[in-house]
Sequence to fold (82 residues):
Amino acid sequence: MNTANEQVSEWIVEGMTCSNCAMGVRKRLEKQGMENVDVNFATGDVRFENIPGKPLAEIKESIEELGYTVAKASEPSEKKKD
Fold:
């Protein structure tokens, strides 16, 4: 059993208008090593588990490179991983 803590981030991303937009954001995050990525284009909600040591500013920049705006990026909360 792995008992490491995961950093869970919940963001609001503006500019997504369809499921392809959401898929693009999800794939970008997964390519960077994020896990359990959930993207809802209708509400702009983006939730993911960050890998240790990955700067959130770098993740935000990669989403903005796709043409979207990170309107709200809350500080990650810790989730105990079983």
